[in-house]
User: Fold this.
Amino acid sequence: MKSSASDSVIPPMDPHGALFLVLGYLRLRELLAFQSVCSLFRDAIAEDHLLWMRITVEPPLSGRLTDDILLKLTSKYGGALKSLALLDCRKITDAGLLQVVERNPTITELYILGSTYLTADGVVRVVQRLTECKGKLKRLRLRGLCNISKDHLDRLNYFLGTNDHPQCSKSSIYNYWKSLPFDDNDDRPLDLDICPKCNNARLVFDCTRDNCRGCFFCIRRCEECGCCIDFEELGEETIYNHLLCIDCWLQLPKCCECNRPYCKGHINFNGECSSALFLCDQCREDDESPTNDIM
Amino acid sequence: MVGVKKKMVTLVSSDGVEFVVEKRVAEQSLFIKNALNEGGVEEKVMIPIPKVTSDTLSSVLEYCEKHASATEFQENEIEEWDKEYIEKADLDLLYYLLQASYSMSIMGLMELGAKKVASLIRGKSPQEIRELFNIKNDFTPEQEEEIRREMQWNYE
Assistant:
């Protein structure tokens, strides 16, 4: 994009008023960068408490986020945090998270996706503390938390008050869940459930074909429609090695070299149009890279 | 006359240029929609749009026109159109579009512009952002030092 402002010889000045309108749309990393640009931004961002009510820490920031920094970020507006999402925040510990919720009992949404130091026991303590502080935690997402047992899940459900209100009947469908945003519109308080097959606490999916229900490990499912896949059907894969049922595989346009389709979620990702003839990224890469066959 | 006569409204930009558009197009702006409802007037409505110049207004109306007939298109078609539309705006127009969509309450356009700005600064350092938007660094050396300490983790 051509920037007409920097082409001309106008000396640097205060930021254009329009830029203040975008603050609410910035991710944490950009917001922090904006804060270091000039004093007008710095003051505007520090004073706007709405910007600090929902905090999402995602890569590349997550790997550098320590307990201390998280505490500072979440204390910016005197403990009125509503939503905290920690995506792949490897350095955050149980004690660190506990401190954050103690100062922010207002948290209603907590998303913990992929973490190394956080333990199931620790998260249960965090949720328990929120309940003790008369917090109103409504939504807890723990996808990717290790070693969570049925007992943990029971306690979490108890603190969340899920037992009083039976789980909503909305079924949870497998398709595209890997590319779904973490704050999906799912209204269940907790994303984990007990898999009826293996009895472990996991993400449990409902089938779109019959009434089977089970976790990722127990039932293979089609990336496209979310139905279960029989062993006879196994073998149809997308370019990204996702499984497809035979019906979906037949319908999708396929790469003209390797004959594998993109699932719909990835078509949008890659901007591949629906034209019948296309070359997938992997085949294109193979074509472009010099081959040593002739030598 | 053949067919139903479409309801038209006239919008007047800050520099006095008149734009005659269909009511359903103009109503993409909540500001105009409310103005029309309050007025209760039917024919030949003139609505002044303060602070929005004719250049900007014509671009805003291009957006409104497309989105007023959004039901005729598929969702990804509109997305593609949005992408191209905002791509061809230069920085000055982007500023004006943001301010116009804010004052005219066109949330979709506002979001589109804001996301464009966000994409421009993604991964950039404060100095690169200053250069991009021609912003003066007005921090004192002490403040700079304080910010550097505070933000160090962000750039490690």
